């Protein structure tokens, strides 16, 4: 008998992946955590039935959420990562020798434990001695921080359940306060393609625009995410994601990547007309 994992992207569309076996199923205090083995995508993680990452395409998400701000900020040394229980963001940050400290606010310790056991390719990021894990709600964690971080990366789940507060105006306002004068905020911005998801994009973008003077959106293609068209938010107190990109400085670091490069960095901020229209509705 064949086994398949299916995720509904809309009431009329679903993604199905053939599964060889289920490696674990744990109900934590916050969510149901499952990890599967598949012939096409390798191992993949789901939370409450929603796919979070696969071994085959996770590099796209983790590189784009990490290297875009790192290539733009002139000297990022102190980083806060909110969420990221799989460790992939820390793996990418670990490639930068100038970083001195990486704080991680992850609400669910079970996600970290299971990823360390079953997803070592991403969870290797936790082995970096510069990483400090705080098992706390990211919304509460950032409230007590002020003028502390060069970059905040919000690698959150979708805006419901444990991740809901990370899409609120209060959270973005507290991130503004926690960032230094040249600080950058990066968040996963959902997909603009399906109508329900597009409304989430508009709501999140509106709240960020209200908190930050510089707010831009960039994109990547991630095959296993709804529609494959995924957005990220770039917000700052003045740094521009394209004009302040130092191509030569970043390329001189010779950081190994499979998706990100500085040409792609520039191009990722050129958005399709339908996305520009979607965002302009709230920017006005």
Number of helices: 10
Radius of gyration: 18 Å
> How many beta strands in the DSSP annotation?
13
Helical content stands at 25-40%
Brief overview:
The chain has 284 residues and is α/β, with parallel strands linked by helices. It has helices at 58-72, 88-93, 109-118, 120-123, 138-143, 169-178, 195-211, 247-252, 262-268, 273-283, and strands at residues 3-10, 13-19, 21-27, 32-38, 42-47, 50-54, 78-83, 101-105, 131-134, 149-155, 179-188, 214-221, 229-236.
Structure report:
- The chain is of the alpha/beta class and 284 residues long.
- 43% of the residues are buried.
- A 7-stranded mixed beta sheet has the order 9-8-7-10-11-13-12, with helices on both faces. A 4-stranded antiparallel beta sheet has the order 3-4-5-6, covered by helices on one side.
- A hairpin with a 3-residue loop joins strand 4 and strand 5.
- It contains 10 helices and 13 strands.
- The longest helix has 17 residues.
- The protein is 32% helix and 31% strand.
């Amino acid at each position: 008998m064949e086994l398949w994992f299916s995720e509904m992207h809309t009431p009329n569309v679903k993604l199905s992946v053939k599964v060889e076996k289920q490696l674990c199923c744990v109900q934590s205090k916050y969510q149901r955590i499952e990890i599967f083995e598949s012939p096409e995508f390798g191992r993949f993680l789901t939370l409450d039935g929603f796919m979070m990452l696969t071994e085959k395409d996770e590099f796209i998400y983790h590189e784009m959420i990490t290297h875009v701000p790192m290539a733009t900020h002139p000297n990022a040394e102190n980083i806060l990562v909110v969420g990221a229980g799989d460790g992939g963001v820390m793996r990418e940050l670990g490639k930068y020798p100038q970083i001195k400290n990486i704080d991680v606010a992850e609400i669910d310790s079970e996600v970290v434990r299971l990823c360390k056991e079953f997803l070592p390719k991403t969870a290797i990021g936790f082995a970096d001695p510069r990483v400090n894990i705080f098992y706390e709600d990211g919304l509460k964690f950032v409230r007590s921080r002020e003028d502390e971080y060069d970059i905040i990366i919000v690698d959150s789940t979708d805006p419901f359940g444990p991740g809901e507060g990370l899409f609120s105006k209060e959270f973005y306002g507290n991130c503004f306060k926690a960032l230094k004068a040249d600080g950058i905020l990066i968040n996963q911005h959902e997909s603009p393609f399906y109508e329900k998801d597009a409304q989430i994009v508009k709501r999140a973008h509106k709240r960020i625009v209200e908190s930050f003077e510089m707010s831009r959106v960039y994109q990547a293609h991630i095959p296993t995410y709804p529609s494959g068209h995924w957005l990220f938010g770039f917000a700052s107190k003045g740094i521009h994601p394209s004009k302040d990109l130092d191509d030569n400085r970043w390329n001189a670091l010779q950081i190994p990547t499979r998706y990100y490069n500085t040409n792609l960095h520039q191009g990722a901020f050129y958005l399709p007309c339908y996305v520009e229209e979607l965002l302009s509705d709230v920017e006005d």
